[in-house]
Write a structure and sequence with these properties.
single chain, eight-stranded parallel beta barrel, alpha/beta, 21 helices, 459 residues
Length: 459
């Protein structure tokens, strides 16, 4: 079975998540006829980018897609206790977010933690189960001395014990080789009573062969994107895999005219966002040691260009694995990809490594993101914490409830819980978006926004 990622990870990986809802709507009914098991259309960076750069309500996007998709399940990518933001949120915020996500139209919630710390998944998974959504537990795949076959087998069992209805091998950097994919899928299929899915990126050139090996090992689902938003730093393309399985008699014929329409549509859409396009015309073998995931690579290229530092790309790619090792080999996926990536850039820019550190690195070392897969370098830990103690409990246990306080702060800006969650997840960015929305709602010209901003709603 196929999970289509075009409307989430496809454009997140290739055009910095800039596809607008209006560009999606004309394609939805045709996509609904493709026979996908599900479509990943929400979560990841889409929530943030919709508000921050597109001036769109992500909840409205979800509702509009749900209205048009009648036959295909809709799913999202949720970062566990991080939700779709960049910090850990209290349990009451996580519960409210998951409840509203299901109420607004999601059938499947793929939940992962960047550190594979199962404690960060409990609240989201329990809430999704109560809402009767399909809960897919995801393994953040990476390679290191501690990330062994037995490690992944043990973590997958923990996910099933927590109630996962299926397991996804989330290979965000495209590091999974065909032999390792065959072993991992075979092992999980033998050991677990739930479907197994594979998700990878083409960045390093391995993904297509890796999918074929997974299929030979009887994987149940594969993540692909329609060809205009496949390859490069995105997923393998849908069309050749479907054609192959159809020729083998595994899958029925599809309407290729409808598929041609979709291909033409998304080719036009991608051209529209050319200025954001990663324009990757060959594989990037350095990813095999840098372990940079697709979305991180495209955004890192953009950031380095903006800082006139693109000539430092090689240095940054060499620094990333050093930082990762010192921080205990975290898999590189949001938010750890940003934590490691930004610190690597700072180390390259500075005369002395770690002479500048971000608050996120400090919070990571303090344990506020969870349990690292391996111990953090003790000298680095001492340098960053300077005598402070790291926590050893579940990170959310040290976070007081926020929903009531957020309601007071948001006031009239939050018309409903969905608005409140925009504010909760995105903070100041969300507040400014809601202020403009509020001004439009009460019939004022948006030019009044700056005048009534801080004075009326100081936060």
């Amino acid at each position: 079975m196929f999970v289509d990622t075009t409307l989430r990870d496809g454009h997140q990986s290739l055009i910095a998540t800039r596809m607008s809802t209006q560009d999606m709507l004309p394609a939805l009914e045709a996509m609904d006829r493709m026979g996908f098991h599900s479509m990943e259309i929400w979560g990841g960076a889409t929530f943030d980018v919709a508000v921050r750069f597109l001036n769109e309500d992500p909840w409205q996007r979800l509702r509009l897609i749900r209205e048009r998709i009648k036959n295909t399940k809709l799913q999202m990518l949720l970062r566990g206790q991080n939700l779709v933001g960049y910090r850990h949120y209290p349990d009451d915020v996580v519960k409210l977010f998951v409840e509203k996500a299901v109420e607004n139209g999601l059938d499947i919630i793929r939940v992962f933690d960047a550190l594979n710390d199962e404690r960060n998944l409990v609240t989201a998974m329990e809430t999704a189960k109560k809402m009767k959504a399909h809960v897919q537990g995801a393994i953040s795949y990476t390679t290191s001395p501690v990330h062994t076959l037995e490690y992944y087998k043990s973590f997958a069992r923990k996910l099933v014990d927590l109630g996962a209805d299926s397991i996804c091998i989330k290979d965000m950097a495209g590091l999974l080789t065909p032999p390792d994919a065959y072993k991992l899928v075979s092992t999980l299929k033998e050991d677990l009573p739930v479907p197994i899915e594979i998700h990878s990126h083409c960045t390093s050139g391995l993904a297509i062969a890796t999918y074929q090996a997974a299929i030979e090992a009887s994987v149940d689902l594969i993540d692909t994107a329609l060809s205009p938003f496949a390859m490069g730093t995105s997923q393998p393309p849908f069309e050749p895999f479907y054609y192959t399985l159809n020729r083998q008699g595994v899958l029925p014929e599809i309407d290729w005219e409808v598929l041609n329409f979709l291909t033409n549509h998304f080719e036009s859409v991608r051209k529209k966002y050319s200025s954001y396009d990663v324009k990757m015309v060959t594989i990037e073998p350095r990813i095999l040691y840098a372990q940079v995931p697709g979305g991180m690579y495209s955004n890192m290229i953009k950031q380095l260009k903006e800082q006139n530092m693109i000539h430092k790309l090689k240095d940054v790619l060499e620094e990333i694995p050093r930082v990762r090792k010192e921080l205990g080999y975290p898999p590189l996926v949001t938010p750890t990809s940003q934590i490691v990536g930004v610190q690597a850039i700072l180390n390259v820019m500075s005369k002395e490594r770690y002479s500048k550190t971000t608050n996120e690195v400090k919070n990571y070392v303090k344990g506020l993101y969870g349990r690292p897969p391996a111990p953090i370098d003790p000298d680095l830990m001492e340098k960053i914490l300077q005598g402070e103690k790291a926590i050893d409990v579940r990170p959310a246990d040290v976070l007081p409830p926020e929903v009531h306080k957020l309601r007071e702060k948001a006031g009239l800006l939050a018309e409903n819980d969905e608005d409140l969650l925009i504010f909760a997840v995105l903070g100041e960015v969300g507040r400014k978006f809601l202020l403009e929305k509020y001004v439009r709602r009460i019939g004022l010209d948006t030019g009044f926004v700056e005048e009534i901003d801080e004075a009326v709603y100081p936060i």
